[in-house]
TrEMBL record:
InterPro entries in the cross-refs: CBM5/12, CBM_sf_5/12
SMART domains tied to this protein: ChtBD3
Protein name as it appears in the record: Cellulose-binding protein
GO MF annotations in UniProt: carbohydrate binding; hydrolase activity, hydrolyzing O-glycosyl compounds
Bias-annotated ranges (Pro residues): 1-11
Origin superkingdom: Bacteria
Pfam entry (one): CBM_5_12
Annotated spans, Disordered: 1-22
Keyword tags: Hydrolase
């Protein structure tokens, strides 16, 4: 008789923690949040932040929440 194969256990995807301060040199995933000057922004596309790429100055990367 065939041996049944184990059913994989579903795993939940990681949840994002609270938004932290925006920082140059940080790798941000799409959907991540960061706080800059007291305002929360949502990352629109994955990138590693560089100086001068602060959220209010790069609307292609960040959306104000």
């Amino acid at each position: 008789t065939p041996t049944p194969t184990p059913t994989p256990t579903p795993t939940s995807s990681p949840t994002q923690g609270p938004a932290g301060p925006w920082a140059a040199g940080t790798a941000y995933a799409a959907g991540a949040q960061a706080i800059y000057n007291g305002v929360t922004y949502q990352c629109l596309q994955q990138h590693t932040a560089l100086p001068g790429w602060e959220p209010p100055y790069v609307p292609a990367l960040w959306r104000r929440q």
